[in-house]
Every structure is written in structure tokens, then in C-alpha cells.
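Example 9 (inverse folding). The structure is encoded as follows.
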């Protein structure tokens, strides 16, 4: 997942994982994608620490299932990463770095996201360059979004206001930043319900 000419990322992304809660059991460090924790000697991951960079974890192997955007800090148990979701996920089976996440405050301020009422960039359009804890409060009618165009940076959309519920990661360096259909948001995306959005920072 290294970007062209982006060798500095290799030094800036590191996750330490354990196969038991509260940093117990088998331990391993990763600086690149992990497609399947069982293939790397872990039946699952139940706690971890993000030492640098931003990462996205997945419920299932192969980057499938619920997504969890993980920024710097400690995650000792499942409540730390999925406590606000519709149903809890007490393990992760694959994860990867988010290479287009902003590194500096200056980059963070240049993030831009366009959202559309309908699929294929149709209907009413909105534009974000800052975090939005409530789209309805901002005046976005309804609870659904049909499509997204990520002009720069990485963003995480949440099902409910206050960054709660299912998460959907949108990246400027994936799909060429174009998310024309709900199913492109992730394998767990069932509806276009999005009511809060924020930027991802390393």
C-alpha cells in the first residue's frame, strides 16, 4: 500500500497487536498490510496499539466486514474500537495503513469531500473541508447520502450523529476518490445512512 514516491510512509506507520485483550498473549508488530491474521500466526487480534500512522481494521480476513478507523493510541479491548456500533465486534482479522490520511495540521486543513444526494454524483451536492458531527444539523436533508467524491485526504463516515454506528472509510487514493455506489463504501454497507463525517489524521 506504499504510495508512489511516498517512502516516508514506511517509517511513519506501525501497529502492535496482541491475540488477547489488555495487551496479553502473543504479540507482533506490523508496518504494512495484514490480509489475514490467521496466515500470520494469529487466530485473531483482540487488543492493539497504534504507535504511528492511521490504520483501518476489518472484522473479517481479506479486508471484509465492519470497518474501524484506528488512530494513534491504545485499544485494550473491543469496547475501545467498536463500542458505539450497532453490534459489537470483539476481534479483528485484517488491517492496513491509511496512506492518504493527513500527516500535518496544514494537510488536515486542505482535506475536501463532496457528497451527493443520489448515486453516480447526482442530485443535491454538499462540500466538506472540516469535521461534521451532524449532517442534519448542517442542513443536509434526510439521513442518506448516495455517493461521495474524495478530492483530498481520508474521511470516515458514521451511520449516526456524533460519529456513532457503522463506519465507512473513504480515501482519495482508492477508487480514484470516487464512491459512486453505496456498496463501494465497504462489504458491510447496506444503506446510504450517513449522519456524521470527520477527517482522518495520522
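The amino acid assigned to each position is listed next.
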Amino acid at each position: 500500500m506504499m504510495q508512489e514516491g511516498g517512502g516516508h510512509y514506511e517509517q511513519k506507520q506501525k501497529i502492535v497487536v496482541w491475540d488477547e485483550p489488555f495487551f496479553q498473549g502473543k504479540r507482533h508488530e506490523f508496518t504494512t498490510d495484514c490480509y489475514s491474521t490467521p496466515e500470520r500466526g494469529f487466530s485473531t487480534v483482540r487488543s492493539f496499539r497504534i504507535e504511528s500512522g492511521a490504520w483501518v481494521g476489518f472484522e473479517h480476513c481479506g479486508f471484509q466486514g465492519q470497518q474501524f478507523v484506528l488512530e494513534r493510541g491504545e485499544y485494550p479491548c473491543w469496547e475501545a474500537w467498536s463500542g458505539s456500533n450497532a453490534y459489537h465486534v470483539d476481534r479483528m482479522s485484517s488491517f492496513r495503513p491509511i496512506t492518504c490520511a493527513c500527516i500535518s495540521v496544514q494537510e488536515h486543513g486542505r482535506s475536501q469531500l463532496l457528497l451527493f444526494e443520489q448515486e453516480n454524483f447526482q442530485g443535491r451536492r454538499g462540500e466538506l473541508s472540516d469535521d461534521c458531527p451532524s449532517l442534519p444539523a448542517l442542513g443536509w436533508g434526510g439521513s442518506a447520502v448516495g455517493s461521495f467524491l474524495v478530492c483530498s485526504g481520508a474521511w470516515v463516515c458514521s451511520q449516526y450523529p456524533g460519529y456513532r454506528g457503522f463506519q465507512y472509510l473513504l480515501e482519495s487514493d482508492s477508487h480514484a476518490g470516487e464512491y459512486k455506489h453505496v456498496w463501494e463504501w465497504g462489504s458491510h454497507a447496506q444503506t446510504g445512512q450517513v449522519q456524521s463525517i470527520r477527517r482522518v489524521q495520522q
